[in-house]
Amino acid sequence: MGLFPENSRPREFLLKAVFIAGGVFCLTSLVLLVAGAPPWPAFYHLFVGALGSWSKLAQVLMVWIPLTLCACGLIYSFRIGLWNIGVEGQVVAGAIASTAVLRFGVESGSASLVLAMAFAAGILGGSLWAILAGFLKTKGGVNEIFGGLGLNFVAQGITLWLIFGPWKRPGVGSMSGTELFPESLWLPTFLSGRLSPVGLVVTVLALGVAAWVLNRTRLGLALKGIGSNTRAAYLHGLNPNTYFIIAMGMAGGCAGLAGAFQVTGVYHRLIPVISSNYGYLALLVVMLANYRVWGSPWIAFFFACLNVGSIQLPIVLKLDSSLSGIIQGALVLTTLLVYGLRRKTKGEERPA
Amino acid sequence: MTDFDLTVLLASIAAGAAPIVLAVLGETISEKGGVINLSLDGSILLSAMVSFAIAYQSNNLFLGFAGGALVGAMTAAVVGFFSVFLGLSQVAVGFVLTLTARDLAYFLGNPYARLYGPQTGLLPIPWLHDIPVLGPIFFNQSFPAYLSLLLIPFVWWYLYKTPMGLRLRAIGENPEAAYARGTNTRTIQFWYTVAGGLLVGLAGATFSLCTKTGWGRPQGAEGTGWIALAIVIFGGWHPVKTALGAYLFAFLQIMGIHFQGWWPSVPAQVFQVAPFPLMIFTLIVMYLAQRSSARTSSRGSPWLRGMVRILSGSAPAGLGRSFKPE
To answer: Using a CB-CB distance cutoff of 8 angstroms, which residues of chain B are in contact with residue A339?
Structure first.
């Protein structure tokens, strides 16, 4: 499935795109009408809220960075056939690890060294959290969906415990998170202090690495082999369990990087909703991107626009901001429908 | 919590577990037929919202429950149509639906947030609720709790003692063989998925009209659907055992509230997530109990042997696979 299917003719692609866009538009308008809201103003405010000014665009890119990083990680785990639903918890684990380093390094002189260490810790934290889910699958027989989900809730619990317990602000702990870090430990930004160039560069690098590893190395081939036929790969001498752990580690590393970025570049502290559901959203991004690396950043950008655009809906139109989620879900469902119907009518035999 | 009344505890477990029991029974039915309905979490929230909205507008609880059941059935029908008839990945469709249904619930339910609406009261059964210990536990409950208690033996009887149940299990185990024997595999899979979704919808209605009354963001039922999915595995796809798992989970939740009173320094949110690692732990124990080494080493002791037998249970062999008739 996906918006960019392999070897499809331009005319057919256009037809499908029109159908999908029309389907999403109709579904969303229907929902808006049910809610008693006029569709046009809602779409207009979504658009203006996302791309109306340079500062809005910067905000979109700040959402794009963690979303793309998570999507990038998920491609590793999807390639081997794992449903890494625990990506949400891996973001949180990365955020916790990098907060720990930053708290420790507040006194030290070299801010850039501490920031680099915080990023490394984030990658490590996310990676370990994912590997935990991987071991639950290979050693404990817990399906990665349930292990990952359980660990998501556990990571959430640890965050809350840290914010209200050991890391609470001087005085009394609150849902607003831990104490702000000194500005020397913030990632440098431009565009009215909203966009971090380091984050952009790191994200593009992560995409490049993923594309290289998955398409040009033995490791990528092994992941693909196990993902398409575990038994055949095993008979070929590849141990699926080892590669499950490796793929989870890579996926968690990317997610942890996203978490570290949320801490150092966006919130400058640990907050209860540090992952902002980007992990779950990234799963949808990757599904739409047909599980491929170069499709993801575009879809992630579109999703980020929807997320940022919907922020002001409650103020302007008294609508809940979850409209963005509805549009995203409708998009994936319509794409699935088009893909499924086409497969049914043409009798194609490609596995979903 | 100083005084600790066992009867009160058991009665509150039976009441609090009602929606979870309904959800796990629904999921057991559809998974027995080979379809994983992963949309549980969102579907419970959406049906909770719809049934509260309907009950609030019409001031009629029955309509509320009916609306919730309908929404659950419709969500399941989407899963069924996409996976059974179009042959798409059940996990993918279910996951997208879970997120979308949740957002839909928050979006459409916005005007109904934090309102006081109708809710089910206790319906003591005459004569029977006076029985000393059993009375308060089983015969002084609300309508959904009675329904959940009655459905456990019914689903068991239906699945294991009727020809329809046998046919459903046959489809879940080996759809090709069932098809070869002349069963209309896909239609049956679809309708049992819808039936399971109906129960899931009732679970959502139970949340907003009975156990966690009202609607809001968050409602309080978030995460239950995922727990229900894990409980179905924990119960080895057996209706009675999954229901027991649901009661165990309700017990853990209630104990969480008690522990909170005992250790006030630990934030409440930590206890709310406590059942999740316990659930992972039980899944691991279950997996280990199924290994052959556990079977051989437990042979000596009747207690251990019984434990292993209770904990073991295997998934329907055709679970999660889309069947394509030739």
So the answer is: 88
